[in-house]
Structures are given as C-alpha cells and as structure tokens.
Amino acid sequence: MKNKKQKINKEESKKADDSSASFGFNDSIKKIKRSHAKTIKTEKEFFLQNEIIENMPEGIYFVRLKDGIIVYANAKFEKIFGYNAGEMIGKHASIVNAPTTKKPKETAREIMNIMKKTGEWLGEINNIKKDGTSFWCYASCFLFDHPEHGKIIVAMHTDITKRKQAEESLKIKNFIFDHSFSANSISNANAIVTEVNQSFLDNWGFLDKKEIVGKSFSVCFNDPKEAMIAHNALDKNGKWSGEFVAKRKDGSTFIAYGPATKLIDEKGKLIGYQSTLFDITERKKAKETIILDEEKFEEIFNYSPIAIELYNAKGELEKVNKATLQMFGVKNEKEIVDFKLFDDPNVPDSAKKVLKNGNLVEYENVFDFEKVQKFNLYNTIKSGIIHLSTVITPLKKGSSGYLAMIEDATDSKNSQIKLREKLDEMEKMNKLMVGRELKMIELKDKIDKLTKK
177-189: string of b/e by CB count within 10 Å (b at 16+)? Predict the structure, then answer.
C-alpha cells in the first residue's frame, strides 16, 4: 500500500515537474516571440523613419559632431548639391559651404562650436554645389544621439536662392523708387496712398510721409473732377498718362505730368495703383515762351523786306522768306531747299573761311546769275548781275546753323552813306534776329534737359 502511494506521488511529482518545465519553456517561447515582435516593430519604425527622411522635400544630412564627417545624406540633399548617391559620405561637412570672407572650414567650425554650446543652429547660409555654383539655403540644425555615430548634427537645407534673388530685386526696385527724381507713389485698391518717395514729398510740400499716407490720392489734384476723370480712365484702361493741375500742401499749384498703372496680382485681382509724376511747370512755361517767340520771329521773317535765309549746321538751306524768293527769282521754296551755303560760288572764299571758324561775316559783292545757271544751282527767272549787302551770323558758333540777311544794294551802290545806314539798320535787325534765334535755341535746350530729368 505504501509502495503504491509512493508510486502515485512520484508520478504526480513527475507530472508537476513536467508541467513546470512545460510552463517554463512556453514562457521562454513567449518572451522570444515578444522580443522578436519588438525587434520587428523597431525595424519597421526604423524603416519607416528612414523612408520619411529619404523622401522629405528638404535636403537632410547627418554630420558626426566630433570630426565633422558626413555620415548620411538623403537623395534630396544630394540632388540639391549635385552629388551622386553616396558620394558625399565620408567627406567633411565644409564641402557644402561656399567660400566667402571666411573659408568653408571656418564656417563649418563656427556652426559646430555654436551647436556644442546650444544644441541647435538656424540661419541662412551661402552654399556651393559640386560644380562650383554658389546658392543660398536656409539651414535648420540640431543634435541627436545616434546609436552608431554618437552625437551627430541633423541638418535640413532648403534652397532659398529664388527668394534671395527676389529680395535683392526688391531692394533694387525700392532703392530706385525711393531715390528717383520722379515723384513716385503707391495706393491701395481704394486709391488710398500707402507709400511715396522723397521726391513726391518735395513736389507736394510734405515734410513727412505721415502727412499723405492714409489719404486719398485725389487730394493731390487741384480739381476733384479732374481726379475722378483720371481715376475712371485708369480703372477702365488699366493705365493712364497725362497732365493735370496739382495742389501742394500749402494750396499752391503746379503742372504735373506722368503715367499711372493698375497693380494686379497673379490671380488677376486689383491690389492698388502706382504713379510716376513730374513737375513740368517750367517746361510748360518754356514751351509757351518758345511758341510766342517763334510767332514773333515768324512774323518778322515772313514780312521783312530783307531776304532772310536759315541754314543748318552743315550749311544746307532749310528755310527762306518771300523776299529771298523775289530777290533770286525763285518761284518755290522747295526748289532751293538743301542748297549748300559753302558751295555757293557767289559767296567769297574768305567769307566761308571766317564762317567755318564760327565768326560773323559782313560783305558786299556782285551776284552773278550766270554762275547760278552755269553751275545749275537752282532754277531762276532772273539774269544779269545785282549788288548785294550780306550779313551771315553763325548760331552758337555754327553748331546750330547760320542766319543770313541779304539786301539788294544795286540801286544804292553810288550812295555810300545810304548804304552805311542800311547796313547799320541791318546790323541792328541782325542782332534782334540772332538774339531771338539764340533765345529759342536756349529755351529748346532747357526743355530737352527738363525732359531728360
């Protein structure tokens, strides 16, 4: 009985041991499975993270902190810098830095020292591609503990070259806007002034931008109706140019001229207006003076009993009055236009020489119509000879042409006193004519200068 119990106990003990062993084995299997599952999860996470980094739009590379060696670069980073896959691995991080006032390694060392202290670095940096092309990037760098490489710098680079170029272009445009001689302004879509340059302030008499910014541009017009007409034309056509009476801060007025345009964004939406204006008051006055002087000159020119001829700087005849046509027997002015002063055989060679030196000549001579026919100078109904008294004045030393005043002295040849009186009279008239002509030239020059401004 005793032996039977012992046998039962041994069997139960064996079952218990077997059960315990089985439980321990199963537990080990479970642990292995859990560990394997964890490993698979870690590998999946690593694979996922690697895929994310590899496909990020930013260029990313890892740099070992202790020696600055590149240990990883994603495809985007390699593409940005023009390297083949894996070509950057093992190279110093400074290969991506463009030489500036500092050497590439100096720039790299400076950034790495900052990161050792702060753990991060953010900023714009001038980079360089494999082919030597420099460009701008925005870099965001931070430290990370890598299981294999220890402390590494994870750097993300974004190419901002286009943005930098746009910024530089904007700086240039702003400089031109601010320093232009023209009065420049920008208004919003409601025609409220948002920006003006110094020239605008000077022209309208404002001391500070605050005096005009925030106000309707129409306050710059003397007549609100004129402002409305210009604005409506601008809205209808997208641009406008013209002159108007402008009103300064103190209420005084001036004549302004210039173009204005609508500002449209890339979506076709109106965002404002831009104008470039000039004070043309002096130009208008000068033009009016020239017109008045030209009218006076034209009246004297046309009705003078003395023959008057205008030549250009080359000595080519451009204009004559009626007295000239009558004196030389020419029916139409067109027949003698382009006639050359310095080819005229009736003008003494000595006089031509003096003229070419830019000096006035005054002489009497016998004019022979046979020479006109012989040299086929122009068609004339006259023949024989006449006695002429001539004064030719170079305008601006000849650079602007020549003014010739000629009188038929045939009937007064024997009266020297009368001739002298006539010459004196001609000389006075010549001074008057020359003065008018020179004044006209000076006024035209002034207009040209004002226009160029």
Answer: beeeebbbbbbee
Give yes or no: residues 295 and 395 share one domain.
yes
Task: Give the chain's count of helices (H) and strands (E).
Answer: 11, 15
- The pLDDT tens digits of the residues spanning 143-196 come to 998 888 999 999 999 999 888 888 888 888 888 888 888 999 999 999 999 999
User: At which of 227, 254, 279 does a domain end?
Assistant: 279
Q: Taking a C-beta distance cutoff of 8 angstroms, is the pair 124, 32 a contact?
A: no
Amino acid identity of residue 235, one-letter, is D
Per-residue pLDDT at 338 = 81
Domain assignment of residue 8, yes or no: no
Are both 319 and 229 inside the same structural domain? no
pLDDT tens digits, one per residue of 304-335? 888 999 999 999 999 999 999 999 999 888 88
Residue 320's contacts (CB-CB under 8 Å, 6 or more residues apart) are: 307, 308, 309, 310, 333, 336
Q: Are residues 259 and 323 in the same domain?
A: no
Task: Please enumerate, as own/partner, the contacts of 437-443 that have beta carbons within 8 Å and a separation of 24 or more.
Answer: 437/297, 437/395, 437/403, 438/395, 438/396, 439/293, 440/290, 440/293, 440/294, 440/297, 441/395, 441/396, 441/400, 443/286, 443/289, 443/290, 443/293
- Do the domain assignments include residue 329? yes
- Out of 44-48, 109-113, 142-146, least confident range: 44-48
**Domain count along the chain:** 3
Q: What is the CATH number of the domain that holds 71?
A: 3.30.450.20
* Strand positions, DSSP E, 189-269: 193-196, 239-247, 253-264
Give the range of the structural domain holding residue 159, as residue numbers without chain letter: 54-163
Length of the chain: 453
Q: Decide: pTM greater than 0.85.
A: no
Q: Answer for the pair 248, 205: CB distance below 8 angstroms, yes or no.
A: yes
